[in-house]
Design a protein that fits this description.
The chain has 8 helices and 9 strands. It is of the alpha/beta class. The strands form 2 sheets. Strands 1-3-2-6-7-8-9 form a 7-stranded mixed beta sheet, with helices on both faces. A two-stranded antiparallel sheet has the order 4-5. The N and C termini lie far apart (40 Å).
Length: 219
C-alpha cells in the first residue's frame, strides 16, 4: 500500500475569533483542490460563527489538471470501479478527521462533512462507516459509490442532505434519487433538493439549504 503524506489544505477560522466549537470538512471533486471549496465558508460563516472550515486536498495528483487532485483515478467508470475507488483514500480521510478532532478537542457530533461530486462519494462512504455518528453530511452533485456494501458496512446513520441539479451533465440527477432510495431503506434521515436547470455545480438555493442544515446541527 502506498503511504501518503497527511492530508492538508486551506482553512477558514471561526468568524467569532474564538476557538472552534464545531468543524466542517469540505471535500472537493475530481480534478479540483481545497482552494476551490474553501470559498463556501464565506457563504456559511455568518450562520456558523464558531465553526472552523477545512478543505483538504485529495491525496493524489490528477492527470491533465494542473494543480488538481483526485480521491481516486477515473480510469474506469463502471460501478465496480467506483466501489473499489472510493476505498482508495478512505484511510487518509479518516486519519485527517481523527487528527482534526483531536487537535481541536472536539467529538464527531461536532463535525459535518460536505462533499461535491467525487468528494460527495467520499463523504457518503466514510461518514456512515465511522464508529461515532457525525453531526451530518451534505452531498452536492454526487452519488453513493458503493451502495450495495452500505448495509453490511455502515455502523452509524448521520443525517444527510443531498442536492443535485436536474441538468447535471456529469452525474445525472438520477444518482440523487438512487442514493436517497437506498439511504431511506436503511433508515437514514435524508433530505433532498433538486435544482431546476442546474448543471454540475452549486446554486444559491443549494447553498442556503446547506447553511440551514449545518446550522440546525452545529449551533
Amino acid at each position: 500500500m502506498t503511504e501518503h503524506a497527511p492530508l492538508a489544505g486551506p482553512m477558514s477560522p471561526p468568524l467569532s475569533g474564538a476557538p472552534p466549537r464545531s468543524l466542517v470538512i469540505l471535500l472537493h471533486g475530481y480534478g479540483s483542490n481545497g482552494e476551490d471549496l474553501i470559498d463556501l465558508a464565506a457563504y456559511w460563516r455568518a450562520a456558523l460563527p464558531d465553526t472552523l472550515f477545512l478543505a483538504p486536498d485529495a491525496p493524489q495528483p490528477c492527470p491533465g489538471a494542473p494543480g488538481g487532485r483526485q480521491w481516486w483515478p477515473l480510469t474506469s467508470l463502471t460501478p465496480q470501479a467506483r466501489a473499489a475507488g472510493v476505498r482508495v483514500s478512505a484511510a487518509d480521510l479518516n486519519a485527517y478527521i481523527d487528527a482534526q478532532l483531536a487537535a481541536h478537542g472536539l467529538t464527531e457530533d461536532r463535525l459535518a462533512l460536505v462533499g461535491f461530486s467525487q468528494g460527495t462519494m467520499m463523504a457518503l462512504h466514510v461518514g456512515p462507516r465511522r464508529a461515532k455518528a457525525l453531526a451530518g453530511i451534505i452531498g452536492y452533485s454526487g452519488m453513493l459509490a458503493d451502495p450495495d456494501a452500505l448495509a453490511a458496512e455502515g455502523v452509524t446513520k448521520p443525517p444527510i442532505l443531498l442536492v443535485h441539479g436536474d441538468a447535471d451533465e456529469v452525474l445525472p440527477v438520477s444518482a440523487l434519487h438512487q442514493a436517497r432510495e437506498r439511504l431511506d431503506a436503511l433508515g437514514f434521515e435524508v433530505d433532498a433538493h433538486v435544482s431546476p436547470g442546474l448543471g454540475h455545480g452549486l446554486d444559491d438555493q443549494g447553498l442556503k439549504l446547506g447553511a440551514r442544515f449545518l446550522a440546525s446541527r452545529l449551533t
